[in-house]
Amino acid sequence: MRTFTAILLIVAVAFAAAATKPAAADDGSWTPIGSVASPHFQQFGQWVADELGAPIRFYRVVSGKRQNANGINYKFVVAMGNRVGVEDNYEVEVHVTVDRSPRALTPVAGEQ
């Protein structure tokens, strides 16, 4: 009985420690964004297309991930097209500074 109680106590302490551990997002790792369909992330995609200028047309943000690093770095796969409507996916990086000042766009990395 004492062994069972000791094991149960160790398991309970392990769960409590895991629950209070800070999120791994601050360690520089990339974490997926599950809700890229939200207006917030779709606005990022539109901003990317606007920054790239004509003839780029924004369709939607397909996927994304984020990294905390002196602000927030985002990597998005964005569906964009040209003026005749040919659609391709492009990977772009966007950096948002800590004070939320204007975003910096890393040039399009290429088709995905």
UniProtKB/TrEMBL annotation:
Coiled coil: none annotated. Keywords: Signal. GO terms for molecular function: cysteine-type endopeptidase inhibitor activity. It comes from the Eukaryota. SUPFAM superfamilies: Cystatin/monellin. InterPro entries: Cystatin, Cystatin_sf. Residues 1-18 form the signal peptide. This is Cysteine proteinase inhibitor. It comes from Leersia perrieri.
